[in-house]
Amino acid sequence: MIKVLIVDDDKLARRGLVSLMDWEAYGMVVAGDVQNGKTALQFVREHPVDLVFVDIDMPEMNGIEFMEECRKIKPEVQFVVLSFFENFSYVQATLRLGGLDYISKTSMELDNGDAILQRILEKYEQRNNKAVPPKEMGEELAAIWEVCRTQHWFFSDGAFERLKELISQVEPKASNVRRLEMMIARYIGELEGLLELPEIMVPLFSDTEEIVQWLSSYRSKVYESMADRSLGSDAERILKAVIYMKEHLEEDLSTSTVAEYIGCSRSYFCIIFKKLSGLSFGDYLQQVRIERAKELLLNSSDSVTEIAFSSGYNDIYYFNRVFRKAVNCSPMEFRKNRGRTGG
To answer: Residue 243, SS3?
Structure first.
């Protein structure tokens, strides 16, 4: 059973929540209900707790402060935040601290308690298993969730292009945009932890196009900021490696060369590179080189041979073969079909 703690300074609200929900039907049991954050911290220290329903607006210690302190004691505990206000800054803070859901007390009075617990249970199981998206998502949002979850989009240009394409295909109705905001806030928060970045507020978006533009800008700014940063976490090292590879495509790059640049062993580099980018070093390097070649074919008058060299291929015949396999046409055909000529 999932052991639940309810934290709210309003005694009637606590009692109402306990009686409103059919906890047992969803594999949950209310282990306790307390009136403030300090008492809740003591309860968490002394009793097994898996999930905390916590009011955001409490005297002495508010819900966000409680979550921050609780994470230090028991980082595995998860949270559902309750509030009378629909405030996206609160939602974002909740997600950063491992919150499963943010529920308006006003809507909770109108909603079916079963629907709320079903949604929370699915998110709880998804967070623990880290395998499938919540069932409430449609196919389009579930596909975006899968790309975001791995964080590959941040380290791989190919995965980022896929993410942008998926977001652009989502019907831009308000409910979808709100769900995308929450998803992005959660995974940007995780990314900030990986890369030791300062927290940034994800804005409220009006449509999916704004989301794509904001993500592109955010990603570019972080890449630019890495130039002035020393090596730190594994994620920082891999991002440094990615930037180094892009800046030295014309050279004979190898796993040993790049691993040495970021100060780790070749074997460990290969493991963390694949984990964060989703591709092996060789596949990633080929992807970046082909993208560079495509860019030059479209935006320069250089010959195909010159472009091959600029993209890191010293053998023009090998370049043609690799390009055709990746793009399904030769470099000359690619240029001609895009309205360019030359060779």
So the answer is: helix
